[in-house]
Amino acid sequence: MKGKKAILMTITALLLSALFFVVFSKESSIPVYYSSQPIKTRVLVLDEYVKTIPKIAGDSLDISTRDALNSLYIDYSKSGVFPSEQLFYQNLKNCIICGKKDSCQAGLSDCVAMNSTDMMSILSLVANLSYNHLNVNTDFKIYNLYVSQNYPFDVDVVIDLEYNVYDSYLDITWKRRDNISKVVSIIGLKDPLTGINTMNMFEKQVIPSDICAYNETCWNFVNAQKFFEEQTFTYSPVGTSFLSRYWNSTNPSTCCGIESFVNISDSRNISFLDHYYFSGRYYCTGIAIPGEKKILSYPSISSYFKLDEYTAGRYGMSDQGIVMCG
Known about the structure:
Elements: H1 2-19, H2 36-79, H3 85-98, H4 119-134, E1 137-151, E2 154-167, E3 172-185, H5 192-198, H6 221-230, E4 234-240, E5 258-259, H7 274-277, E6 295-297, E7 306-308, H8 309-314, E8 322-325
Helix pairs in contact: 1-2, 1-4, 2-3, 2-4, 2-5
Protein backbone atom coordinates (compact mmCIF):
# COMPACT_ATOMS: atom_id res chain seq x y z
CA MET A 1 0.00 0.00 0.00
CA LYS A 2 2.88 2.39 0.67
CA GLY A 3 4.05 1.99 -2.91
CA LYS A 4 0.57 2.64 -4.24
CA LYS A 5 0.17 5.77 -2.13
CA ALA A 6 3.54 7.06 -3.30
CA ILE A 7 2.73 6.71 -6.98
CA LEU A 8 -0.72 8.24 -6.56
CA MET A 9 0.73 11.19 -4.68
CA THR A 10 3.23 11.65 -7.50
CA ILE A 11 0.48 11.54 -10.11
CA THR A 12 -1.63 14.01 -8.14
CA ALA A 13 1.30 16.38 -7.73
CA LEU A 14 2.04 16.17 -11.43
CA LEU A 15 -1.51 16.96 -12.45
CA LEU A 16 -1.89 19.73 -9.88
CA SER A 17 1.35 21.38 -10.95
CA ALA A 18 0.17 21.26 -14.53
CA LEU A 19 -3.07 22.88 -13.46
CA PHE A 20 -1.27 26.01 -12.24
CA PHE A 21 -0.14 26.66 -15.79
CA VAL A 22 -3.53 26.18 -17.36
CA VAL A 23 -5.16 29.55 -17.98
CA PHE A 24 -8.45 28.10 -19.05
CA SER A 25 -10.21 25.67 -16.75
CA LYS A 26 -13.70 24.41 -16.06
CA GLU A 27 -14.36 27.23 -13.59
CA SER A 28 -12.93 30.02 -15.78
CA SER A 29 -15.32 32.85 -16.64
CA ILE A 30 -13.37 33.77 -19.80
CA PRO A 31 -14.24 31.56 -22.78
CA VAL A 32 -11.22 29.91 -24.30
CA TYR A 33 -11.95 31.13 -27.82
CA TYR A 34 -11.52 34.77 -26.73
CA SER A 35 -7.78 34.45 -26.55
CA SER A 36 -5.18 32.41 -28.44
CA GLN A 37 -2.74 32.35 -25.51
CA PRO A 38 -4.98 30.29 -23.23
CA ILE A 39 -5.53 27.86 -26.10
CA LYS A 40 -1.81 27.56 -26.75
CA THR A 41 -1.05 27.12 -23.06
CA ARG A 42 -3.72 24.49 -22.59
CA VAL A 43 -2.59 22.50 -25.60
CA LEU A 44 1.02 22.54 -24.40
CA VAL A 45 0.04 21.44 -20.90
CA LEU A 46 -2.20 18.64 -22.14
CA ASP A 47 0.49 17.53 -24.57
CA GLU A 48 2.92 17.26 -21.64
CA TYR A 49 0.33 15.28 -19.71
CA VAL A 50 -0.02 12.82 -22.59
CA LYS A 51 3.77 12.43 -22.71
CA THR A 52 3.85 11.52 -19.01
CA ILE A 53 1.38 8.65 -19.39
CA PRO A 54 4.01 6.02 -20.38
CA LYS A 55 6.04 6.96 -17.28
CA ILE A 56 2.93 6.75 -15.08
CA ALA A 57 1.99 3.39 -16.64
CA GLY A 58 5.51 2.07 -16.16
CA ASP A 59 5.63 3.05 -12.49
CA SER A 60 2.18 1.53 -12.05
CA LEU A 61 3.41 -1.71 -13.65
CA ASP A 62 6.06 -1.92 -10.95
CA ILE A 63 3.42 -1.74 -8.21
CA SER A 64 0.97 -4.10 -9.94
CA THR A 65 3.57 -6.74 -10.76
CA ARG A 66 5.10 -6.93 -7.27
CA ASP A 67 1.66 -7.01 -5.65
CA ALA A 68 0.49 -9.70 -8.09
CA LEU A 69 3.53 -11.90 -7.41
CA ASN A 70 3.00 -11.49 -3.68
CA SER A 71 -0.70 -12.26 -4.05
CA LEU A 72 -0.03 -15.52 -5.87
CA TYR A 73 2.62 -16.45 -3.32
CA ILE A 74 0.03 -16.06 -0.54
CA ASP A 75 -2.56 -18.01 -2.52
CA TYR A 76 -0.38 -20.94 -3.57
CA SER A 77 1.55 -21.27 -0.30
CA LYS A 78 -1.68 -21.40 1.69
CA SER A 79 -2.72 -24.56 -0.14
CA GLY A 80 0.78 -25.93 -0.72
CA VAL A 81 -0.20 -26.77 -4.30
CA PHE A 82 1.93 -25.65 -7.24
CA PRO A 83 0.10 -24.54 -10.40
CA SER A 84 1.17 -25.54 -13.89
CA GLU A 85 3.40 -23.10 -15.75
CA GLN A 86 0.51 -22.14 -18.02
CA LEU A 87 -1.88 -21.56 -15.13
CA PHE A 88 0.69 -19.49 -13.24
CA TYR A 89 1.22 -17.12 -16.16
CA GLN A 90 -2.54 -16.86 -16.68
CA ASN A 91 -3.09 -16.03 -13.01
CA LEU A 92 -0.20 -13.56 -12.96
CA LYS A 93 -1.36 -11.76 -16.09
CA ASN A 94 -4.91 -11.42 -14.79
CA CYS A 95 -3.77 -10.24 -11.35
CA ILE A 96 -1.57 -7.54 -12.88
CA ILE A 97 -4.20 -6.35 -15.34
CA CYS A 98 -7.45 -6.51 -13.37
CA GLY A 99 -6.83 -8.01 -9.92
CA LYS A 100 -8.91 -11.10 -10.75
CA LYS A 101 -7.02 -14.38 -10.69
CA ASP A 102 -9.19 -16.53 -12.95
CA SER A 103 -10.46 -14.13 -15.60
CA CYS A 104 -10.79 -10.39 -16.13
CA GLN A 105 -14.16 -11.05 -17.74
CA ALA A 106 -15.69 -13.36 -15.16
CA GLY A 107 -13.80 -12.00 -12.16
CA LEU A 108 -14.75 -14.93 -9.98
CA SER A 109 -11.73 -14.84 -7.71
CA ASP A 110 -9.98 -11.70 -6.45
CA CYS A 111 -6.22 -11.67 -6.20
CA VAL A 112 -5.69 -11.59 -2.44
CA ALA A 113 -4.00 -8.62 -0.76
CA MET A 114 -3.83 -6.50 -3.92
CA ASN A 115 -6.15 -3.74 -2.64
CA SER A 116 -6.90 -2.18 -6.05
CA THR A 117 -3.26 -2.06 -7.14
CA ASP A 118 -3.96 -3.79 -10.46
CA MET A 119 -3.36 -1.77 -13.65
CA MET A 120 -7.03 -1.19 -14.46
CA SER A 121 -7.70 0.21 -10.98
CA ILE A 122 -4.65 2.47 -10.99
CA LEU A 123 -5.31 3.74 -14.53
CA SER A 124 -8.91 4.44 -13.54
CA LEU A 125 -7.58 6.66 -10.74
CA VAL A 126 -5.34 8.42 -13.25
CA ALA A 127 -8.35 9.04 -15.49
CA ASN A 128 -10.34 10.47 -12.57
CA LEU A 129 -7.47 12.74 -11.53
CA SER A 130 -6.98 14.03 -15.06
CA TYR A 131 -10.69 14.86 -15.31
CA ASN A 132 -10.90 16.54 -11.92
CA HIS A 133 -7.70 18.59 -12.27
CA LEU A 134 -7.23 19.06 -16.02
CA ASN A 135 -10.83 18.66 -17.15
CA VAL A 136 -10.01 16.11 -19.84
CA ASN A 137 -11.30 12.62 -20.49
CA THR A 138 -8.64 9.88 -20.50
CA ASP A 139 -9.56 6.42 -21.74
CA PHE A 140 -7.26 3.41 -21.36
CA LYS A 141 -7.44 0.03 -23.05
CA ILE A 142 -5.07 -2.84 -22.27
CA TYR A 143 -4.58 -5.15 -25.25
CA ASN A 144 -2.03 -7.55 -23.81
CA LEU A 145 0.64 -8.04 -21.19
CA TYR A 146 3.85 -10.07 -21.27
CA VAL A 147 6.03 -11.23 -18.38
CA SER A 148 9.48 -12.76 -18.74
CA GLN A 149 12.79 -12.98 -16.92
CA ASN A 150 16.21 -12.08 -18.29
CA TYR A 151 18.13 -11.34 -15.10
CA PRO A 152 18.30 -13.22 -11.77
CA PHE A 153 16.73 -10.58 -9.53
CA ASP A 154 14.43 -8.78 -11.99
CA VAL A 155 11.26 -9.53 -13.91
CA ASP A 156 10.52 -7.88 -17.27
CA VAL A 157 6.95 -6.74 -17.91
CA VAL A 158 5.57 -5.25 -21.13
CA ILE A 159 2.05 -3.87 -21.47
CA ASP A 160 0.36 -3.13 -24.80
CA LEU A 161 -1.60 -0.01 -23.83
CA GLU A 162 -3.84 2.33 -25.78
CA TYR A 163 -4.66 5.70 -24.25
CA ASN A 164 -6.85 8.46 -25.66
CA VAL A 165 -7.05 11.93 -24.13
CA TYR A 166 -9.98 14.10 -25.21
CA ASP A 167 -10.45 17.79 -24.44
CA SER A 168 -14.10 18.70 -25.09
CA TYR A 169 -13.42 22.45 -24.85
CA LEU A 170 -10.92 22.45 -27.67
CA ASP A 171 -12.35 19.36 -29.36
CA ILE A 172 -8.89 17.81 -29.58
CA THR A 173 -8.02 14.16 -29.11
CA TRP A 174 -4.59 12.65 -28.48
CA LYS A 175 -4.49 8.98 -29.53
CA ARG A 176 -1.57 6.72 -28.62
CA ARG A 177 -0.82 3.00 -28.43
CA ASP A 178 2.51 1.92 -26.96
CA ASN A 179 4.32 -1.14 -25.70
CA ILE A 180 5.42 0.11 -22.28
CA SER A 181 8.09 -1.92 -20.54
CA LYS A 182 9.25 -2.03 -16.94
CA VAL A 183 12.03 -3.93 -15.20
CA VAL A 184 10.59 -4.97 -11.84
CA SER A 185 12.84 -5.97 -8.95
CA ILE A 186 11.97 -9.17 -7.08
CA ILE A 187 14.21 -8.26 -4.15
CA GLY A 188 12.26 -8.47 -0.91
CA LEU A 189 9.56 -10.79 -2.26
CA LYS A 190 9.05 -14.20 -0.67
CA ASP A 191 10.67 -17.23 -2.29
CA PRO A 192 7.82 -19.34 -3.72
CA LEU A 193 9.86 -22.56 -3.78
CA THR A 194 10.29 -22.50 0.00
CA GLY A 195 6.89 -21.06 0.92
CA ILE A 196 4.72 -23.29 -1.27
CA ASN A 197 6.63 -26.48 -0.48
CA THR A 198 6.29 -25.90 3.28
CA MET A 199 2.83 -24.25 3.26
CA ASN A 200 4.35 -21.17 4.95
CA MET A 201 6.02 -23.14 7.73
CA PHE A 202 9.29 -21.75 6.40
CA GLU A 203 9.56 -18.48 4.51
CA LYS A 204 12.52 -16.69 3.02
CA GLN A 205 12.83 -13.31 1.36
CA VAL A 206 14.75 -13.05 -1.90
CA ILE A 207 17.79 -10.98 -0.95
CA PRO A 208 20.91 -11.18 -3.14
CA SER A 209 24.16 -11.93 -1.36
CA ASP A 210 27.29 -9.87 -1.90
CA ILE A 211 29.42 -12.94 -1.24
CA CYS A 212 31.02 -14.16 -4.50
CA ALA A 213 28.31 -12.36 -6.47
CA TYR A 214 28.49 -13.51 -10.13
CA ASN A 215 31.91 -15.04 -9.41
CA GLU A 216 31.77 -18.82 -9.05
CA THR A 217 35.55 -19.12 -8.71
CA CYS A 218 35.73 -17.29 -5.36
CA TRP A 219 33.80 -19.85 -3.33
CA ASN A 220 35.52 -21.61 -0.45
CA PHE A 221 34.50 -23.07 2.90
CA VAL A 222 34.62 -19.73 4.76
CA ASN A 223 32.51 -17.92 2.15
CA ALA A 224 30.05 -20.80 1.93
CA GLN A 225 29.61 -20.79 5.71
CA LYS A 226 28.90 -17.04 5.64
CA PHE A 227 26.43 -17.59 2.82
CA PHE A 228 24.61 -20.23 4.89
CA GLU A 229 24.47 -17.90 7.88
CA GLU A 230 23.10 -15.04 5.78
CA GLN A 231 20.28 -17.16 4.33
CA THR A 232 20.40 -15.07 1.18
CA PHE A 233 20.42 -15.95 -2.52
CA THR A 234 23.12 -16.02 -5.16
CA TYR A 235 23.07 -16.26 -8.94
CA SER A 236 23.94 -19.67 -10.35
CA PRO A 237 23.52 -20.97 -13.91
CA VAL A 238 22.42 -24.31 -12.45
CA GLY A 239 19.85 -22.64 -10.19
CA THR A 240 16.16 -22.18 -11.00
CA SER A 241 14.68 -18.81 -11.95
CA PHE A 242 12.42 -16.92 -9.56
CA LEU A 243 9.37 -17.20 -11.82
CA SER A 244 9.85 -20.94 -12.44
CA ARG A 245 9.85 -21.52 -8.69
CA TYR A 246 6.13 -20.73 -8.73
CA TRP A 247 5.46 -23.96 -10.65
CA ASN A 248 8.21 -26.00 -8.92
CA SER A 249 10.44 -26.29 -11.98
CA THR A 250 13.74 -28.12 -11.55
CA ASN A 251 15.14 -26.86 -14.87
CA PRO A 252 18.32 -24.76 -14.54
CA SER A 253 18.28 -21.22 -15.91
CA THR A 254 21.56 -19.92 -17.29
CA CYS A 255 20.34 -16.31 -17.32
CA CYS A 256 18.32 -16.16 -14.16
CA GLY A 257 19.08 -19.08 -11.88
CA ILE A 258 19.17 -18.37 -8.15
CA GLU A 259 19.81 -20.65 -5.20
CA SER A 260 20.19 -20.63 -1.45
CA PHE A 261 21.15 -23.00 1.33
CA VAL A 262 18.26 -24.41 3.34
CA ASN A 263 18.40 -24.03 7.13
CA ILE A 264 15.97 -26.68 8.32
CA SER A 265 16.22 -29.32 11.04
CA ASP A 266 16.28 -32.44 8.88
CA SER A 267 18.39 -35.48 9.74
CA ARG A 268 18.00 -37.09 6.32
CA ASN A 269 21.05 -37.45 4.12
CA ILE A 270 19.89 -34.94 1.54
CA SER A 271 21.46 -31.93 -0.15
CA PHE A 272 20.51 -28.65 1.53
CA LEU A 273 20.80 -26.62 -1.69
CA ASP A 274 17.23 -25.33 -1.94
CA HIS A 275 16.18 -26.45 -5.43
CA TYR A 276 17.87 -29.84 -4.87
CA TYR A 277 16.40 -30.22 -1.38
CA PHE A 278 12.81 -29.63 -2.47
CA SER A 279 13.19 -31.77 -5.60
CA GLY A 280 13.89 -34.78 -3.34
CA ARG A 281 16.36 -36.22 -5.82
CA TYR A 282 19.69 -35.39 -4.21
CA TYR A 283 19.89 -37.85 -1.33
CA CYS A 284 21.39 -41.16 -0.28
CA THR A 285 20.17 -43.94 2.01
CA GLY A 286 23.33 -45.94 2.53
CA ILE A 287 21.95 -48.68 0.34
CA ALA A 288 23.42 -49.10 -3.13
CA ILE A 289 20.49 -47.70 -5.10
CA PRO A 290 21.11 -46.44 -8.67
CA GLY A 291 20.88 -42.67 -8.95
CA GLU A 292 21.72 -41.90 -5.35
CA LYS A 293 24.18 -39.06 -4.72
CA LYS A 294 27.19 -38.88 -2.46
CA ILE A 295 26.20 -36.69 0.47
CA LEU A 296 28.69 -34.78 2.63
CA SER A 297 27.97 -33.46 6.13
CA TYR A 298 29.26 -30.17 7.61
CA PRO A 299 28.69 -30.27 11.39
CA SER A 300 30.89 -27.19 11.94
CA ILE A 301 28.32 -25.18 9.97
CA SER A 302 25.19 -26.86 11.33
CA SER A 303 24.42 -30.23 12.84
CA TYR A 304 21.97 -30.85 9.97
CA PHE A 305 23.68 -29.13 7.03
CA LYS A 306 24.69 -31.41 4.16
CA LEU A 307 25.44 -31.07 0.46
CA ASP A 308 25.71 -33.36 -2.49
CA GLU A 309 29.22 -33.93 -3.82
CA TYR A 310 28.69 -31.83 -6.96
CA THR A 311 27.40 -28.78 -5.08
CA ALA A 312 30.13 -29.09 -2.46
CA GLY A 313 32.67 -28.91 -5.28
CA ARG A 314 31.05 -25.83 -6.77
CA TYR A 315 31.16 -24.07 -3.43
CA GLY A 316 34.79 -25.04 -2.79
CA MET A 317 34.11 -27.15 0.28
CA SER A 318 34.57 -30.76 -0.80
CA ASP A 319 37.63 -31.30 1.40
CA GLN A 320 35.88 -30.21 4.61
CA GLY A 321 32.89 -32.53 4.28
CA ILE A 322 32.30 -35.85 6.03
CA VAL A 323 30.99 -38.53 3.69
CA MET A 324 27.66 -39.80 4.99
CA CYS A 325 26.78 -42.21 2.18
CA GLY A 326 26.73 -42.59 -1.56
